[in-house]
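Reviewers of the previous submission asked for a worked example of the structure-prediction workflow described in the proposal, so we include one complete record here. The input consisted solely of the amino acid sequence. No template or homolog information was supplied to the procedure at any stage.
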Amino acid sequence: MSVRGVPHEGASSGRTGHAPSWGGQMKKVLAALVGGGLVVLGAILMPLPGPGFVIVVAGIAVMATQFDWARSLLHKTRDKAWEAQKAAVETWPRLLTTLASACATIGVGVTIVLVDDVAWPVWDSFFDRFWTNVTGYCVIGTGTIVIVTTVVAIWLHRKEEAGEIVVTEKTAADVG
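From that input alone, the workflow returned the following structure tokens.
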């Protein structure tokens, strides 16, 4: 005898191990919808100042919770990003250029926030649509992200050189 919806002792659950459960299918669908939506939103935001690329990576990370291809893409993206960031801090000229660019980006953002209107020589109404406090804060955030990731990259690069950590080698958690 069984309680409603619960099989009695010794009864099979009806799952063979090959077919994903209804809940598993829903997780995949939800990950695909949310992750895909984030990827599309990030791609739309790419040409604008702000975190378009970060949103794309967040979408891939959401999909990586359920799909092996997305997990592999996320690992490749992480490794390429690490290599690019590592190259940016390997020499003093590169490091100073990265930090100066980030500070200039923050300066542009602060200017956008503080200056209400600019008389553009061409397409004045077009540029005025984007010259808003929201744009300024996004630009400031972008420059801040560059500074933070650069500081973290310096710290990780030094730990890697000292042999304390291995950054790009896959761990068991990454593979499975």
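Residues 1-15 have pLDDT under 50 and may be disordered. We consider this example representative of the routine output the project will generate in years two and three.
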